[in-house]
Amino acid sequence: xxxxxxxxxxxxxxGAALGAAPGGPERRxxxxxxxxxxxxxxxxxxxLAGDTLYLAGTIGLDPKTGLPPADPKEExxxxxxxxxxxxxxxxxxxxxxxxVQVFCADLELYDDFNAVYRxxxxxxxxxRAFIGSGPLLRGGRFEVQGIAVKR
Length: 151
Hints:
By secondary structure, the protein is an alpha+beta fold. It has helices at residues 3-17, 72-89, 110-117, and strands at 27-30, 46-49, 52-59, 97-104, 127-132, 142-149. The chain has one domain: CATH 3.30.1330.40.
């Protein structure tokens, strides 16, 4: 096979893996217009491909100021509420999450985040990574993203 044929085969395989090939899962992009901070930004809040929802990262911002609140627990609550609202747009709940990633600008806030996080789930919890990061946008302490699969 020549190079062009291999490129075509690779492109078709990649497209199939991403659900873009004919017969693959239809994609629906969710953009919550009710969020004045995120609505104008150049990304989808989530992408639904088949029964799988890929949620963009969210920071717990006060809707009035567009900044994180002074209390880290309140910021965590706002981030998880935003995630919950995006899941609801897709007809899902927090219990549909299979994996969650938390980026944290200050790992000393691990216990504060967990105190709030536990109130949003029933066991078994989704798989999760809590990752120390550098500075987050708008001075956020936490950015949360996840993947959910509709039951």
